[in-house]
Amino acid sequence: MQQFIALLSLTLISPLLILAGLLILILDGLPIFFLQKRLGKQQKLFSIIKFRTMRNDNITAIGKIYRSLGIDELPQLINVLRGEMNFIGPRPLTLNDCDRLGWNTPYYAIRWQTKPGITGLAQLTPICHKKMSWFFDRYYVTHQSVILNIKIISCSLLILIVGKNRVRHWIWK
Q: Omega before 31 cis (within 30°)?
């Protein structure tokens, strides 16, 4: 079902994706996409797809806009279509992230029982700390429900309209 919704979404937003890619090409040149190895379900590696928002370790002008609206994440619908990700789940981490956070021990095994998501509880919180991320990832994995998914998707879609900071402020006020 998620793959069908991803295909439908890609079809519906294809004009936006084409425009976003053209703006990167015109303003910043190639490459348009950023590919990076990430850990998925059961820590299986896959290549995540995002719009490129950086050049020489600096966020580009268009990249700043894309990140604030979450547009840079939209190509991950291809990862959902391929079955590598879900719409909702824990953030997909790099091997370095996993090592840095110490999340490669049996204590954190529950986190790897589900596919990572384009969005999730940890991505909606304004606090970026490993304990908070672990709390929200574990909470999501153990409390998955249609209602929780609807809440997360609703907040994530609002981000596209009004931006991350406003939505985070509304949620965590």
A: yes
Distance CA 103, CA 31 (A): 31
- pTM equals 0.88
Q: What is the bridge-based pairing of β-strands 117-119 and 54-55? A: unpaired
Residue-wise pLDDT for 60-108, tens only, equals 999 999 998 889 999 999 999 999 999 999 999 999 999 999 998 999 9
User: Half-sphere exposure (CA, 13 Å, Cβ side) for 38?
Assistant: 22
Structural domain range at position 114: 2-172
Dihedral, CA atoms, 5, 32, 61, 86, nearest 10 degrees? 30
How many domains would you assign to the chain?
A: 1
